Amino acid sequence: MDNKEIYENLAFQLLSSLSKVYWQKMYSYIKENNINHKDVNCFLLNPESMVIYFGQKFIAIEYCGNPYKTSFETVFQYEVMVRDFTREKLTTKQFIEKIIGFRYDGTSDFSIPLFSDIYEDLIIPTNAGMDKLIDLKWNFTAQSSVMSLNSTGLDITDNHFVRLINCRFFDEQKGDLKTRIIKWIDFLPYYYNEPDEGEFDEMIINLDIYDRLWYQDIFYEYPKPNDFKFSKLPQINRFIEFFGDSNYSEPEITSFLARDENKFILNMGFMGTGIYDEVLCEWQSEKKDNIKPDFFILRANGYADIIEFKLPRMKSKLIVGKNNREHFNSELNTYIAQTRVYATYFDDPNNRKWFEDRYGFKVYKPKRYLVIGRRNDFQSDEWIEIKADYNNLEIITYDDLVDTVISQFYQ
């Protein structure tokens, strides 16, 4: 049997044993007492997937999925992934770094000690991650949390059970913000005797802790913000995490903003009363390809303007030329031309009538907003003069959008 099969079998044995002292008790209690699924911790009972990590001294069980789900399947089915770090001879601190995916760069000798306890809402950035969060204007007061700075990572005292819930970890890699959210993970101390050929393997692990935790875990309520401010700022943080990572595409960014729970970002950022995304505009008087702006932002007067998103990272310098001949580069001019087509569409009264009949709101001489780049891309005075040459066009950065929204929480 190869190493992978060994640890897959060990994971299966572990989950089977855990089910008897933990999940089966939960299921039975809920059924026998006819408890509504909305009143219990459905996340633990029916995660989307689980990851089992094997280290030298600890096994970690991570639950993945939606922690706010309000129902669960009676058949406990989920995907299980197994990762074996035992061959690497890691310390416990290094083992946790492997799970998180970041290597901590603290200049102190301080690592955060974890004892037998349950830890909620930790925010542990690397030093590089902290610098990136500050650069992105990430709001540190958005949610109740415990933050550690300049640490060398997390460490667990030997032979102690530790649980992490709703913990966030940040790093910066190649200019991008990297985020790791651990929703729920248990670290179990164990002893494993790797067998010689022809002998049986032996894994010794004490699951008594689950015999004590199963009841309170049934009714555990995953951390939630309490009021408007605390319910919205974490979503803005998530938006910042999105545009801070160049691996996300334009459609992924706009899809995030188009979700009902995130539309407030555009409504507040552009002072609108409603958001419409992916609205198809068909030409009525000419044979042209249909257009589909990213968003329409509805105003109080019943008319709408247009918002178009491009990536926050520009491929080259935005302003080129010299000696009073400065101008926007070809990339930015291409994006501006795209928004000009949107304006041209609504110059035609046939298009306007068809659009209003179909969608129920008006667009005429719309202001076009082009969201692109970061504030540092537009620091020179020349860009303001060049932008003034474009009618009904406003170029704003991702930083401008976030600052506009956040400032309204403190009015």
Summarize the structure in words:
The chain is of the alpha/beta class and 411 residues long. The chain is built from twelve helices and 18 strands. The strands form four sheets. Strands 1, 2, 3, 5, 6, 7, 9, 10 and 11 form a nine-stranded mixed sheet that branches. The longest helix is centred in the first third of the chain and has 30 residues. The radius of gyration is 27 Å and the shape is elongated. The protein starts with a helix and ends with a helix.
SS field, number of helical segments: 12
The rounded distance between the terminal residues' Cα atoms is 65 Å
| Poorly predicted sequence stretches spanning 5 or more consecutive residues | none
Which class best fits the helix and strand makeup?
Answer: alpha/beta
Give the percentage of residues in beta strands. Answer: 15-25%
The beta-strand count equals 18
How would you sum up the global shape? elongated
Helix-residue proportion: 25-40%
Sequence of secondary-structure elements = HHEEEHEEEHEEEEEHHHHEEEEEHHEHEH
What radius of gyration results from the CA coordinates?
27 Å
Mean pLDDT: 86
Largest sheet: 9 strands, mixed
Oligomer: single chain
